[in-house]
Amino acid sequence: MADQQEEEDLKMALRMSMQNSPPEPKRSKPRDTAILPATTTPEDSRQLQRELMAAAAEKRMLAAAKAAPPSSSQSKNERSGDFEMKEAEKKAKEVNLGNELSDKEAHQLFAMVFGTGVSKDILAQWSNQGIRFSPDPETSMGLVQHEGGPCGVLATIQAFVLKHLLFFPDELGKVAANMPQNLNSRRSKSQYVASNNFSAFTEDAKARALVKSMSEMLFLCGNNKRAVIATLSVISHGIEGSEGSSKDVIIAQALEGLSIESASDLQKVLRVDRYTSPTSAFKRLEAMIPIFQSRMGALLFLISALLSRGLDCVQADRDDPSQPLVTAPFGHASQEIVNLLLCGQAVPNVFDGRMDLGGGMFLKGISTSVEVGFLTLLESLNFCKVGQNLKCPKWPIWVVGSESHYTVLFALDTAVQDENELEERESQIRKAFDAQDQSGGGGFISVEAFHQVLRETSIRLPSEKLDSLCNSGFIVWSEFWQVILDLDKNLGGLKDSTGQMGRKIFDLYHFNGIAKSDLNGSQATTEGETPVQRPRLTKLRVSVPPRWTPEEFMADATVAPGNAGSESSQKDAEVAKPEQPPQHAPLADCIRTRWPRAVCNWIGDPPSIV
């Protein structure tokens, strides 16, 4: 109605101006029709209509312009206000608070990790372990552990960190645009020896090695396609833009009083982000590293790995998905957690491939080669058999498992994994034998499987030896191996008349991240020596004898002066024998599962794997 009256007013104004008479007072109601003066000719009437229509159109255009968004002719203040608003929106998007898990996902995750009826002590262990480097100069390249449960997570991260620090030091300063390729990257087959100056690593280099390792491991769990990063809502937004020690203060204040005792507690504070770009994931981890250094760090990284793999995929990997991944009663990380972080699959076994139990049932093992490997004391006790995939990783770094703890063993020289003629042949035969072993690493196979091994390895046994081995209905590895050692090379055996094949001497380092009293590093005080609480780093000299039994080796180690002979024979004897009597510790038993017949020596306290 208002628009109609405005048009009538316009018509009247135009008509009055054309009559050269004063305007008529405004009416309270619109006219029904426009009254034209009697003297108006038809031509004038048509002209007036055209002008009225043009004026009305112009008025509508002006009204539309007023209703439209501000044009480029806005004032400077208006443009500045809009810019500030857009910047604020952009910053709000950059402060990524992540997404909540659904109620179902949170309960599935909590039950998968801790099960039902988990004790408060176990929850406290996993809620009070950060991913931090040791402040001790001698062990500053290592992650320090204060709680007894999450060692499986820390040790595997430590192994990957050492890979980057030792063998890719020049890559630490580069943008992580091609990180998944690191999974398959290897230096040339030529020997590479890393530096043993561990205290020379800068804080920045260690931090970048940690971020690269975490990103690599998460993408490994995500099949090199995705990575999920879990953080906490109570602090993830508070550290954006903070620097230095202020981040630690903010995090400590935010975590004060926070406890995770149920799936509901976890859902309230957990936030997750999914990434398909390694560069984006690297930058997010780099920004959130203070959170992973906090007391919740180890648990958050485990959750990140599980979500990267996918909860349903994790359960499918396992042989018994009804059991929690964190084992009772001490809260240790299960082998499934360690395998997930090492190879990207939460399988429970350490042998290669899978074992057919018949009836469509299988036990799952390690299906592919790995960057860093695994050794266990349980193999030396004949409880399991570690396959070649974990035993011979791409880099000379191994997570070492005992009954209750995980530590790390590593070498600086890649040549420790090089095989000579004898070792290559041994590996070939052992791999063929293990492929037929359906006993779970028990070391025996059927007669039919034994004949398959002989065909694959081109071993031609004399009939009497073949009958002797097959007489019991199954073949034991130790008996088979002794026959191979006495079998001539032309028959596929390994008989060595010189006794020098397989001789090796090299150094290994063992790192135990749990802070313990170190008497070697004790500090002098007025009241005596006070042991230092710090991780342990031990250097070992490993000697692999040329003979095939330790007894033969030790018998040959002592060379009578009258039999010294030539200079070359003296040098051979000097290299072959150990520099000092062999020492024993459970770690030496683990090392012998990788290098049979090896003997070890070290200075100071024996290395501890507990």
Automatic annotation (TrEMBL):
<dbReference type="InterPro" id="IPR003903">
    <property type="entry name" value="UIM_dom"/>
</dbReference>
<dbReference type="InterPro" id="IPR039785">
    <property type="entry name" value="MINY3/4"/>
</dbReference>
<comment type="similarity">
    <text>Belongs to the MINDY deubiquitinase family. FAM188 subfamily.</text>
</comment>
<protein>
    <recommendedName>
        <fullName>ubiquitinyl hydrolase 1</fullName>
        <ecNumber>3.4.19.12</ecNumber>
    </recommendedName>
</protein>
<dbReference type="Pfam" id="PF13898">
    <property type="entry name" value="MINDY-3_4_CD"/>
</dbReference>
<feature type="region of interest" description="Disordered">
    <location>
        <begin position="1"/>
        <end position="99"/>
    </location>
</feature>
<feature type="compositionally biased region" description="Low complexity">
    <location>
        <begin position="50"/>
        <end position="68"/>
    </location>
</feature>
<feature type="compositionally biased region" description="Basic and acidic residues">
    <location>
        <begin position="76"/>
        <end position="94"/>
    </location>
</feature>
<feature type="domain" description="Deubiquitinating enzyme MINDY-3/4 conserved">
    <location>
        <begin position="110"/>
        <end position="479"/>
    </location>
</feature>
<dbReference type="InterPro" id="IPR011992">
    <property type="entry name" value="EF-hand-dom_pair"/>
</dbReference>
<dbReference type="GO" id="GO:0006508">
    <property type="term" value="P:proteolysis"/>
</dbReference>
<dbReference type="GO" id="GO:1990380">
    <property type="term" value="F:K48-linked deubiquitinase activity"/>
</dbReference>
<feature type="region of interest" description="Disordered">
    <location>
        <begin position="559"/>
        <end position="588"/>
    </location>
</feature>
<keyword id="KW-0833">Ubl conjugation pathway</keyword>
<dbReference type="GO" id="GO:0071108">
    <property type="term" value="P:protein K48-linked deubiquitination"/>
</dbReference>
<comment type="function">
    <text>Hydrolase that can remove 'Lys-48'-linked conjugated ubiquitin from proteins.</text>
</comment>
<dbReference type="InterPro" id="IPR025257">
    <property type="entry name" value="MINDY-3/4_CD"/>
</dbReference>
<dbReference type="GO" id="GO:0004843">
    <property type="term" value="F:cysteine-type deubiquitinase activity"/>
</dbReference>
